[in-house]
Every structure is written in C-alpha cells, then in structure tokens.
C-alpha cells in the first residue's frame, strides 16, 4: 500500500465542535495514520472522549492518546497495529509499532517543547526513545518540531531566533534521519506556520535510511475552519506518502505476518533482543 502519514498540529482541539471539524478533515484526507500535536487535553475525560469519538467514526481503526500528542489510524487491509506503544513521561512523544504490508514499522508522533530552556532535554529524551528498539526497524517521525534545522531554507527570517536547532541537528545525525520534504524538493520553500511576522516549516516528517528510497510524495494542507471561516490551527498539515511494500528487506528488517507478531512469546523475545 502507499501509506499516507499525516502530521497535524490541532491546537487544543478539545471542544465538541472543534473535534468534529478535525475528524471530518481527517475522514476526507487520503492519509491512513494521523499524528497529532498540541492536543493539550485538560483531563482524562477529555482524552477519553476524543478517543471514543474517533472510534465511533472508525470502529475498525484505532487511537492512542497522550497528553500532548496522539496517533489515530483508519482501517486498511495492509495496516495492522501490533499492540506495542511507548510514550515519554511528559506526553510529548508517542511511538507505535505497526505492520505495513507485513513490514514492521515504528511511527512516532511528537510535539517538541516550545520553551527554549527545555528543548535540549526534549531532543535528548526523543533520541533515547527512538534508539530503544532494534535499529533496523524502519522509522517515521512526524509533527511539530518547534524549530528548524536549516533556517536558510525553512524560515523567512534565517537570522531570527531558532533555539533548539543544534539539538535537532544532533538527533538527525545520530539516527541518520532524512527530511521527506527535502527528498522531494531539495530547494523548496514551503512554510507551515506563521508567528510574529516569521514563517517557518515547523511541521516536518523524518524517516530512517531504509525508507528514503520509497518516499513517494509530500504535500501540505491548510487546517479546517470554523463555520465563521476561521482556521482551527495556525499550522498546515504535512502528508507524506511512503510505499513500504517496495522496501528492501534483509537481515536488519522485520517482515513478518501479524498472526506471528501478536504471539506473546515471539513479541517478548523480540523486545528482549532489542
């Protein structure tokens, strides 16, 4: 399948009206998995309600909710949830493992810290979480990074404040990640957020080296609007299409049937070896 991964900053979509509009937006999107940032659920009841509403619309799909980020998915014959998720203690990183065309794939949704002094710790924690499992498993990491790695191409104000970018660059280097938009458009200047007269491409998707060759497209969508026409987010969504059926499988990659992966003994064995 051509897997569509969508990263969307939903800017506190907690009221019933905002939730319904975002869900309608996701329903009509060609994407299969949605990684949401800036969820900011004020209570467990709000997050439970959010999850229940999604599952009512997509009973064969699924949802995992953290305090600041979430992952939703639609049902598809070639997409299976393995039952394994992990998250950071602050609810800003949520990582799930899926089988996509029988390829075991790790998908991470992140909402990076906005406070300058907190960014180094955030990126260090993210790096540790992403390195926790077997390095051969394909990885897709998306949503709001709250800084850019290359201001000369990803900001309208290249000399402006961009705290955290060196920590981000270190993360990219350690994990050998590639920016999917730059794979498709090396010198493009599409921005996803505007703040204080500066526009930046804060919303991005990165992939591990074993996915680079099967990234097919990247596009951006404006946020849905209220009945009065006001955008529900100042961020655009980023949609990356990846054809994991074409990935090279070798000794470092897991390609395995879901009925075997969900066998508890095998799952525990793989986790132990990782």
3D architecture notes:
The chain is of the alpha+beta class and 274 residues long. It is built from eight helices and 14 strands. It has a single domain (2-273), classed as Endonuclease/exonuclease/phosphatase (Deoxyribonuclease I, Chain A). Strand 5 and strand 6 form a beta hairpin. Helix 3 (119-130) packs parallel to helix 5. It starts with a strand and ends with a helix. Residues 256-269 have low confidence and may be disordered.
**What topology, given as strand order, has the largest sheet?**
3-4-2-1-14-13
Mean pLDDT: 89
CATH arch. level architecture: 4-Layer Sandwich
- In whole angstroms, the N-to-C terminal distance is 27 Å
Figure out the total of helices: 8
Largest sheet data: 6 strands, mixed
Low-confidence stretches: 256-269
Task: Provide the CATH superfamily.
Answer: Endonuclease/exonuclease/phosphatase
The CATH topology is given as Deoxyribonuclease I, Chain A
Residues in helix, %: 25-40%
Strand content: 25-35%
CATH class: Alpha Beta
Overall structural domain count: 1
Structural class of the helix and strand makeup?
Answer: alpha+beta
What's the overall geometry? globular
Radius of gyration: 18 Å
Task: Write down the secondary-structure element order.
Answer: EHEHEEEEEHEHHEHEEEEEHH
Q: How many beta-strand elements?
A: 14
